[in-house]
Amino acid sequence: MSLTRAERTIIMSMWGKISAQAEAIGTETLERLFTSYPQTKTYFPHFDLHPGSAHLRSHGSKVVVAVGDAVKNMDNIDSALSKLSELHAYILRVDPVNFKLLSHCLLVTMASHFPEDFTADAHAAWDKFLSVVSSVLTEKYR
Amino acid sequence: MVHLTADEKNAVTGLWSKVKVDDVGGEALGRLLVVYPWTQRFFDSFGDLSNADAVMGNAKVKAHGKKVLDAFAEGLKNVDNLKGTFAKLSELHCDKLHVDPENFRLLGNVLVVVLARHFGKEFTPQVQGAFQKLTLGVATALAHKYH
Questions:
Q1: Which of B114, B139, B115 is nearest to B30 (CA)?
Q2: Which ranges carry the Globin domain (chain B) (predicted)?
Q3: What is the rounded CA–CA span in Å between residue A7 and residue A124?
Q4: Which residues in chain B have their CB less than 8 angstroms from residue A28's CB?
Q5: ipTM reported for the complex, 2 dp
Q6: Average pLDDT of span B129-144
Q7: Cα dist. B45→A19, A129, B42, B67, B130 in Å?
């Protein structure tokens, strides 16, 4: 599954707005994840998960920045996220099902913040892109 | 069984009262067909689904989306008995329509995204959580009679 030129254009055109609010978007995405899918909290026993906590804001930013790395290297997401891929495979070992849950919550957050930009085409492009990112991150699992 | 707290029930009914069922149903079904194009397999008779604009503007998609959302709204009124409420529809989707229940989960998530788009900040993590429980409950109820 690879992204068409049109899909890449859509993603890159929205990225500016998203990265300008990286911390807010990242934090909200995680809050949505933990609220709708409480089982995902099992990966964060060491975090303060109260809404707006320093942990959530810092981790939310991290996640959005990483997505940004993929956006900026769309021809070569495997290389761009190689270290993260290893981290997830050997250290974090987050069950692959959770990437779908996080991706969904990111889409919901984007739809909520950018209703006009988040057209059906944009929705499709982002869903596909996040699915590619998720595949890269789980590629080395076994 | 879907367990919604009193707050969640209020959040869901409160938001739903502001939903334009005609628009949201068509948009949700349309987006399902655009984002997950393989779902078009059930709609050969719907005419032009060749690109996003065609899908989102398609009259049959809008009409069918409204039908689907009206059915979903029944679930909202019967949260304590989703399996009973959707028993007949479950049989229909299995025996006549031959729809893989995975599609119910996909549509439920698309509906959540559409609600987020329409309601913005008002679609808080808590409201989303309530709707996720509901859409999962409806999807499970629709799959319940499969054999």
A1: B114
A2: 3-147
A3: 8
A4: 125
A5: 0.92
A6: 97
A7: 42, 30, 8, 16, 35
